[in-house]
Amino acid sequence: MDEENCTAVTDFILLGFSDAPELRLFLFLLFLSIYGVTVWGNLGMIALIQMIANILKEDKVISFLELTVQFYLFCTSVVTEVILLAVMAYDRFVAICDPLLYMVTMSRNLCMELVSCCYLNGTVCSVIHLCLDLQIPSYRSNVINHFFCDIPLLLSLACSDVTVNQLVLYTVATFSEIITSVIILISYLFFLITILRIHSAEERCKAFYTCASHLAAIAVLQGTILIIYCWPHSGNSMDIDRVATVFYTVVIPILNPLIYSLRNKDVKEALRKVVSSKIFS
Predict the structure, then answer these.
(1) Which of 252, 201, 247, 197 is nearest to 227 (CA)?
(2) How far, in Å, CA of 33 to CA of 40, rounded?
(3) Could you tell me the CA-to-CA distances from 1 to 5, 6, 12, 263 in Å, in that order?
(4) Contacts of 164 (CB under 8 A, 6+ apart)
(5) Strand partners, 139
(6) Could you say which DSSP state residue 159 is in?
C-alpha cells in the first residue's frame, strides 16, 4: 500500500442506507416510526403491569380481560425473575470459583437453555394459576385493595371454595422459594470459601463487591415473596402486602440498571468517554 495515501483519522463518515436524497426523508420517517412504536410499546407494558395508569385515572375500573392479561404478565415476570436470580448466583459461582473454565462451563448454548427454562417456568406457573382462577364463578365484591391484580386478593374475594387454588399457590411459591434459595445458598457458600482463600485483602473486597448488589436484590425479592405468598395471612395483612409489593414492583426495577449495567466496568468506561467527549467538544 502506498504510504502517501494513508493519513491519521480522527473521525469517520457513515454512508447510511442510501445516498439518494429522495429516500432520506422516507427512511427517516420509517425508522422514526419503528422506534416510536417500540418506545410506546414498552411504556404500554409498564403501564399495563404496574400501577402507573391507575394513578392517573379518575375511576379505578379495570375490565376482566385487562385484569387477566395483567395477572398473567405479572405472574410470569415474578416467577421468571426469581428463577433467574438463582441462575445468576450459579453463574457468579462459576466465574469466581472456576474462572479458567468459565467460558467452557457457561457456554452460549447453556446460557440460552438456562434463560429459556426461566421463562418457560414462569409461563407454566402463570398459566396454571390463570386456569384455576378463571374457574371461579363469582365474587362477593369487585373492589380490590391493591394497585394491581394479585392472586391472594383475588382468592379472598371469591364466593366459592378456593382451597385448591390456595394450595397450588402456596405449594408452587414455597417450592420455588426452597429450590432457588438452596441454589443461591450453595453457590454463595462456595463463593465465600473461595474468597477466604484469597490472600490479598483488596482482591477479596473486589470479589465480594461484585456480588453484594446481587445479594441485595435477592433479599428484597425473596423476602417480599415469602411475606406475601408463603406466609399465613390474616384479615388485616392486606395493607402490609401492598407496601411489601412496592419493593419488588418498583424498587428492584430501579436497582436493576445500577446492579447489572452501571456497575459494569465496560459500561462505566463507555459512559466516561461519552461524558468526556461532550464536555471537551
Answers:
(1) 247
(2) 10
(3) 8, 9, 20, 44
(4) 132
(5) 158
(6) S
Q: Is 139 helix (H, G, I), strand (E, B) or coil?
A: strand
Query: Grid coordinates standing for 79?
Result: 416467577
Query: 84: which residues sit within 8 A by CB, 6+ positions away?
Result: 115, 118
Rg (CA), the chain: 25
158, β-bridge pairs:
139
* 207-245 pLDDT, tens digit each: 777 677 777 778 777 777 777 777 655 444 566 666 777
- 194 vs 166: CA distance, rounded Å: 42
Of 69-83, 248-262, 267-281, the range with the highest mean pLDDT is 69-83
Report the C-alpha gap between 111 and 117 in whole angstroms. 10
For residue 177, what are the contacts with CB-CB under 8 A and spacing of at least 6?
Answer: 82, 222, 225, 226, 230
User: How would you label 91-108 residue by residue, b for 16+ Cβ within 10 Å and e otherwise?
Assistant: bbbbbbbeeeeeeeebee
Q: Report the C-alpha gap between 156 and 122 in whole angstroms.
A: 23
CA 165, 235, 221, 142 dihedral sign is positive
Domain boundaries, the chain: 15-49, 65-251
C-alpha cell at 208: 465480594
Q: How far apart are CA 252 and CA 162, in angstroms?
A: 31
